[in-house]
Amino acid sequence: MTAKAFPEGSQGHRSAALRTLALLLVATVLGMGWLFWPGEEVEVVIPVGQSARQTAAVLKDKGVVRSALMFRVVARAYGLGRRLKPGAYRLRRRMLPGRLLSALAAGSGGVKVVIPEGWTARQIAERLEKTGLGSAADFLRIAANDRLEGYLFPTTYSFEPGTDSSRVAQRMHVEFDRRLAQEFTRAESKPRLTLHQAVTLASIVEREAVLPSEQPMVAAVYLNRMRIRMRLQADPTVQYALGYWKKGLTSEDLQNPSPYNTYVHYGLPPGPICNPGLGAFRAVLRPALSDALFFVADLTGGHKFFLTQEEHLKAKLAYKRGLREEKKRLRSGKS
Question: φ and ψ at 308, to 5 degrees?
Fold first, then answer.
């Protein structure tokens, strides 16, 4: 009976060790290839339930890795193939494999999403879907059923990966209650408006005022018009009726019969046309002390305010004339 060269089972262990060593050598070679060429920062979203294969494909598409196959080989070598966590990450193109895997295994600490002031529920839904937080259709359905347009507070949120649309909508509405509803309750003196009316008017002010500093004046104009039963004639309400923020409204657009069209109907529209921020809401509660009834855009990005229609029409003509001159100047190539 001859003695065995290796103890029983050691050949299998040796083969496994050699395979692991080979994989680690591949990882090292790849790492050395990328070591001196760090790339620009990119945002990568890894949805819940995504496989290592799908994750590798996303990383390759974003330029974070050169080869999806080699990433999976490296992940397997490190024993992290099934430990990559979903979330929104800020990564770099051509990252070192070890650093990349460490980041994906540690997790992003939450999915951050920025909701700008003045966005509609539809715009919010589309951004949430792109960030990996549910589907846009689900969020829109919830927003419509619960009448949340205007009641989703715009700010920066952080959600756990995989948070569903109902919880996202609830969180945004809770933030609305904490910020705007409480602001309304605490206000000592304010126009004679209900909370719903104040939010609706604030949504118009949010879309109309280009400069935050002008919000109190824009609010004052609309409140003055409401007081004398004059149509608000707010372009953003027509845009909302059309379903998108269209520039250069036509006379046909202004005749849209939608109840949201304040060129056709008196008073406020049935509800908010976007989700206003705190500044626009405060402007409605504390408008500027002014009797102005009109305003016209100027050529500097702001507005000019007037008491009479005659002043308003003159300013409007001057604005159009200024636009024509500006277009001529641009066409002629003059600075």
Answer: -110, 155
Q: Which long-range contacts (CB under 8 A, 24 or more apart) does 25-31 make?
A: 26/70, 26/73, 26/74, 26/77, 27/73, 27/74, 27/77, 27/78, 27/97, 27/98, 30/66, 30/70, 30/74, 30/97, 31/96, 31/97, 31/98
Q: Is the whole model's pTM more than 0.85, yes or no? A: no
Cα 24 from Cα 77, distance rounded (Å): 6
Answer yes or no: do 284 and 198 share one domain: yes
Instruction: Say whether both 91 and 139 belong to one domain.
Output: no
Q: Compute the half-sphere exposure of residue 273: CA atoms within 13 Å on the CB side of its CA.
A: 27
Q: At what angle do helices 136-145 and 121-130 cross, to 10 degrees?
A: 150
Domain extent for 143: 111-185
Q: pLDDT tens for residues 85-134? A: 777 777 888 787 778 887 787 766 678 899 999 999 999 999 999 888 88
Given a contact cutoff of 8 angstroms between Cβ atoms, the answer to whether 146 and 176 are in contact is no
Per-residue pLDDT reduced to its tens digit, 156-211: 998 887 788 999 999 999 999 999 999 999 998 889 999 999 999 999 999 999 89
- H or E element at residue 318: helix 309-332
- Packing angle, helices 165-176 and 121-130, rounded to 10: 130
pLDDT in tens, 6-25: 455 556 667 666 777 766 66
3-state secondary structure (DSSP) of residue 308: coil
Same domain, 171 and 221: no
Q: What single-letter amino acid sits at 251?
A: S
Question: Hey, what are 309's tokens?
Answer: 């229609």
